[in-house]
Write a structure and sequence with these properties.
Helix content is 8%, strand content 54%. The chain is mostly beta strands. A hairpin with a 5-residue loop joins strand 7 and strand 8.
C-alpha cells in the first residue's frame, strides 16, 4: 500500500476518532490507524425483513426496505441489490437499527451499468473469446479461440484466429467471465464503518420514479335513478424497474410539492392487468399532514411492469339525486346537440357516513352503469371527480338529455343610469318525455344585482348565480320570464 494512501486513511480515522471520543493518546492513534490501512471487508446484505412502499399520485414512490447484514469491525463494502432502476440516488438514507450511533456510511455508489451484448463485447476488445458452432441437431461441431478486434451490434465483427483475420465470423460467443464493472441489476454499494461487528438490522429508504396510482369508480344506478352501488378501485402502476414482494402498500392522495429538475420518465409498455377479488382487509384511511393516507391492511406483491387493481371501498344503496340543468352561459360540449340548447344530466350524492360512505374520496374517473328492461347493464356515462373530503357533495355530469330542449333569448335591455343595467330574458323549456321533469335554469350575474320580476320562484345559488327550478309537464312547453338589474362600480 502507498504511503499517500496510508496517510489518507490515518487522516480519516483521526477525524472519526475526534468526532466520537475526543482526544486520544498518540499511541492509540497509531495502533488503530495501522488496522484501518487494511482493505475494507466485503459484506453481504440478506433477504428483506420488511418492505414498505408509499406511492404518490404523481409518478413518485418512497421505498423502505429492512435487511439483515453482517459487518466486521472497521470498514465494510456492502452491495445492496434489487433497488429500483429509476431510483434517485441522492434521496437514499441508510440506518443501522441495531447500532445507529456506532455505524455510519463513509461512501455510497450507485452502479447502473447493466450488462448487455454490446457492452459485454466492448469489454472484450483485444481479448480472447471463443466461438462455437452447432449442427442442426444441436451438437457441437467446431470450437475456435480468437482475439476480438471489432464488434458491431452485440456481435463479433472482426476476429483474429492465429494468423487469419475473419470478418463477421459464425458461431455462438462464449466468454469466460463477466467483465469487471458490469452488473446484472442496479445496485447500491456502500462503504460502511462500524464499531460493532456482527449482524445488523439495517433500514434503507429512497425515492424512485415509475410508481403511480389513480382511482377508478364503478357506479350502478337503480331503475328509478334514486340509489346506486359504488365500488372504488385503486389502480397501481409499477414501471420503476423493481419488484416489491409482500410489501406494505400505502397511498398518498394529494399533490406533494417537488422541485422539477428533469422531465418525467416514460411509462412502461406491456403491463399486465391483475384484478383480484374484493378483499375484506382493504384500505384504511388516515389524515397525514395536509393529505390523506390509505394503507392496505394486508401485504401485497407489486411486480415490475405491472398494473394492479385493489378495491378501495364498496358502498351499497347510496342515495342519489338526478338533476336536469340548463346553463346556457356554461354549456358542456357533448354530443351533436346545439350547446346553447342542451340540458345537462347530473347525478348528485353526498359522501357521508349516513349514505354508507364517509371516506375521503381520491380523485378519479367514475363510470356509471344502469340495467335496461332486460336486466343487462348498459354504460350511462362517466365523469371525473377531484379529491373529495367526507360530508361533501359530488356531482357527476353524464351527458345531455335527449328529450329535453331549452332556448334562451334576451327580450329587453335598458340603462337607467351610467352604471345601471336592466335586462329581461325568456327561456322556453320543452319536455318530450312521458313524465314531468324539473329543469334547473341557471343565470349568472355581476356587480350589485337584484331580480325585479320573475314568472317562477328562484333561489340564490351563490353570490353571482340564481337558479329557477321549473317544472315542465310531459309533452309540453313551459316558458320562464324574468327581469334583473345589475349595478357596477
Amino acid at each position: 500500500m502507498s504511503i499517500a494512501r496510508g496517510a489518507g486513511l490515518l487522516a480519516s480515522f483521526s477525524m472519526a476518532c475526534h468526532r466520537r471520543a475526543g482526544v486520544l493518546a498518540l499511541a492509540l492513534l497509531f495502533c488503530v490507524g495501522a488496522t484501518l490501512c487494511a482493505e475494507a471487508q466485503p459484506a453481504v446484505s440478506g433477504e428483506s425483513k420488511g418492505l414498505e412502499i408509499t406511492v404518490y399520485n404523481q409518478n413518485l414512490g418512497l421505498v423502505k426496505d429492512r435487511r439483515a447484514i453482517t459487518l466486521s469491525e472497521g470498514l465494510n463494502v456492502v452491495p445492496f441489490e434489487d433497488v429500483a432502476a429509476q431510483i434517485d440516488p441522492t434521496s437514499v438514507h441508510f440506518k443501522s437499527l441495531s447500532f445507529p450511533d456506532q455505524t455510519w456510511v463513509v461512501e455510497q455508489n450507485y452502479q447502473f451499468d447493466l450488462v448487455n451484448q454490446d457492452k459485454l463485447l466492448q469489454k472484450y476488445l483485444d481479448k480472447e473469446i471463443v466461438l462455437v458452432r452447432y449442427d442442426e441437431n444441436g451438437q457441437e461441431i467446431e470450437r475456435r479461440s480468437g482475439i476480438l478486434l471489432s464488434q458491431q451490434g452485440g456481435r463479433p465483427a472482426v476476429v483474429r484466429f492465429d494468423d487469419q483475420i475473419v470478418v463477421d465470423p459464425l458461431g455462438v460467443v462464449v466468454l469466460p467471465k463477466l467483465p469487471e464493472g458490469l452488473i446484472t441489476k442496479p445496485t447500491l454499494v456502500w462503504t460502511i464503518e462500524t464499531e460493532k461487528a456482527g449482524s445488523h438490522l439495517a433500514e434503507v429508504s429512497y425515492l424512485t420514479e415509475g410508481l403511480n396510482w389513480h382511482c377508478d369508480y364503478v357506479a350502478v344506478v337503480d331503475n328509478k335513478d334514486e340509489k346506486m352501488d359504488l365500488n372504488g378501485w385503486v389502480t397501481l402502476v409499477n414501471s420503476s424497474g423493481a419488484t416489491y414482494k409482500d410489501a406494505t402498500l400505502k397511498l398518498v392522495a394529494g399533490t406533494v410539492h417537488r422541485v422539477e429538475e428533469r422531465p418525467p420518465m416514460p411509462r412502461a409498455e406491456g403491463m399486465v392487468l391483475t384484478v383480484p377479488a374484493p378483499a375484506k382487509r382493504g384500505f384504511e384511511e388516515e389524515a397525514f399532514f395536509e393529505y390523506h393516507l390509505y394503507t392496505l391492511q394486508r401485504p401485497t406483491t407489486v411486480r415490475d411492469n405491472e398494473q394492479k387493481q385493489v378495491m378501495l371501498l364498496s358502498a351499497a344503496a347510496v342515495p342519489l339525486t338526478k338533476k336536469f340543468v340548463y346553463d346556457p352561459a356554461r354549456p358542456r360540449y357533448w354530443g351533436p346537440q346545439d350547446p346553447t340548447k342542451q340540458v345537462q344530466v347530473i347525478l348528485e350524492f353526498k359522501n357521508s357516513e349516513e349514505n354508507h360512505m364517509g371516506m375521503p374520496l381520491p380523485a378519479g374517473k367514475v363510470r356509471v352503469y344502469k340495467a335496461d328492461q332486460s336486466g343487462s347493464l348498459q354504460f350511462a356515462g362517466e365523469d371525473a371527480i377531484q379529491h373529495t373530503p367526507k360530508d361533501e357533495k359530488v356531482e357527476l355530469y353524464l351527458g345531455n338529455a335527449f328529450d329535453l330542449v331549452a332556448e334562451m333569448r334576451q327580450t329587453d335591455q335598458r340603462q337607467p343610469a351610467e352604471n345601471l343595467v336592466q335586462a329581461a330574458f325568456e327561456v322556453k323549456l320543452r319536455n318530450h318525455k312521458e313524465e314531468k321533469v324539473t329543469i334547473r335554469v341557471l343565470h349568472h350575474l355581476y356587480g350589485d344585482w337584484e331580480v325585479l320580476d320573475s314568472s317562477h320562484e328562484w333561489t340564490k345559488k351563490d353570490a353571482f348565480t340564481i337558479e329557477f327550478p321549473v317544472e315542465v309537464p310531459a309533452g309540453q312547453e313551459e316558458v320562464l320570464r324574468f327581469r334583473v338589474q345589475m349595478k357596477s362600480g
